[in-house]
Write a structure and sequence with these properties.
It contains 15 helices and no strands. The two termini are 41 Å apart. It has 404 residues and is an all-alpha fold. Helix 3 (53-74) runs antiparallel to helix 11 (213-235).
Length: 404
């Protein structure tokens, strides 16, 4: 067992903070989660090649629905949990209260998902409720916040490895179950590796309620990156859903990397700012340059992504090239704003961030209802560009306004 995976003692909290702030922790966590995402991406390629386009479209919508429900169940812990662990320790009231709220929210979200798939006539997608359970109950954020990156990624890697193996080996109709079995294994491992037995007091309950702002933020972010897929199925066809959702997987792979980097950096930056508040201006400048470089990488990779999509998924997906190029532009915008987002989250400006993202999501839905019937995938992609720019601009502006 590596030193990074030694159990973290509740006291002193300062020791937890130091381990959470190491660069090695961030690198190992991001690398492990990226590996898990690559496994899931390969499973999606297998699904796209083995299933007909209409079924791929249904699977895409069912997966998105499970992720919406999982965001509710998570109760903002993915965003704020590592920060709370780094600040207060694993056995704090804040962390134990957040776990209680997540359990309740996950039960409700799982039942809602099961009812939705039955009422929609696609009850064969019920195994994806395991995705809801994983996203709502996993405790990987505890491993990240307390400096145990290998434990923080173990469940995700193991679950996606199993899911990929099942997706390849089992009959094609078992592919939804492959995602489900992977989710169950992932959450079981995560729960076994991160045990917190302390019951919260009212102070911790209030803090857990505050973390709920990132339920709003998470759902809003998921809305303006995925509601277009739902509306394509509703207003156009499942075939367009299959093409759009599949090519979107390429920029989404980069967006996942950005999200992981943001999550891994938050506890480090929060700790750094608490110790050295005058370092803020240096961090702002670094955030701007990092965002510019990252956005340039995305723009440079766009021709490669345009060629890669049909090569991976097949000739039926050639029509997805145009929306993919536009989505890559949207991804460059997100990349530019992501380093500034770290500063905003580290400062605890949860309420304003959530409200801005909610406004952006509302604009996205309204715009998509107008443009998708006439312009299909291309219209949906351009709507994504506009609405991704709103929170990115907020993060950049807010990170510069905050007092030193």
């Amino acid at each position: 067992m590596s030193t990074l995976d030694q159990p973290v003692r509740p006291e002193p909290v300062r020791a937890d903070r130091r381990s959470a702030g190491t660069r090695t922790t961030s690198v190992l966590y991001v690398s492990g989660r990226l590996g898990a995402q690559i496994l899931e991406f390969v499973l999606w390629v297998v699904a796209a090649q083995r299933l007909d386009l209409a079924t791929v479209g249904v699977l895409a919508i069912a997966l998105l629905g499970s992720r919406y429900a999982g965001f509710v169940g998570d109760w903002g812990a993915t965003f704020t949990g590592p920060r709370e662990v780094a600040r207060f320790g694993v056995e704090s009231d804040e962390v134990s209260s957040l776990l209680v709220r997540r359990t309740t929210a996950t039960i409700v979200a799982s039942l809602a998902y099961l009812i939705a798939v039955v009422l929609s006539g696609h009850s064969d997608m019920w195994p994806l409720v395991a995705v809801v359970l994983f996203r709502g109950l996993n405790r990987d954020w505890i491993g990240l916040g307390s400096g145990r990156p290998l434990r923080a990624v173990a469940g995700n890697v193991a679950g996606n490895t199993l899911a990929l193996g099942l997706g390849i080996a089992l009959p094609v109709e078992w592919i939804p179950a492959a995602f489900g079995f992977g989710g169950l294994v992932a959450v079981a491992i995560s729960l076994s590796l991160h045990r917190v037995g302390r019951r919260p007091d009212p102070k911790g309950v209030r803090r857990a309620r505050a973390a709920g702002w990132y339920v709003v933020a998470g759902l809003a972010g998921l809305t303006y990156t995925t509601v277009d897929t739902f509306l394509l199925g509703l207003l156009r066809s499942n075939t367009e859903v299959a093409i759009y959702a599949s090519v979107y997987r390429l920029p989404n792979a980069w967006l996942l990397l950005i999200g992981l980097a943001v999550g891994a950096a938050v506890p480090r930056v929060a700790e750094h700012l608490e110790r050295l508040p005058h370092a803020r201006q240096q961090l702002r400048s670094r955030a701007m340059w990092t965002g510019l470089v990252g956005a340039g990488v995305v723009v440079a990779a766009t021709p490669v992504a345009s060629w890669l999509a049909p090569a991976l998924f097949g000739d039926d997906f050639v029509s997805g090239r145009s929306p993919l190029v536009i989505l890559m532009f949207a991804t460059a915008i997100v990349t530019f704003g992501a380093p500034s987002q770290v500063l905003v989250i580290a400062d605890g400006d949860d309420r304003r961030a959530a409200l801005v993202m909610a406004v952006s999501a509302a604009i996205n839905v309204a715009a998509n209802l107008v443009v998708i019937p006439a312009h299909g995938m291309v219209g949906a992609a351009w709507t994504t560009v506009v609405t991704q720019a709103i929170p990115a601009a907020f993060y950049v502006a807010t990170s510069r306004r905050n007092p030193a």
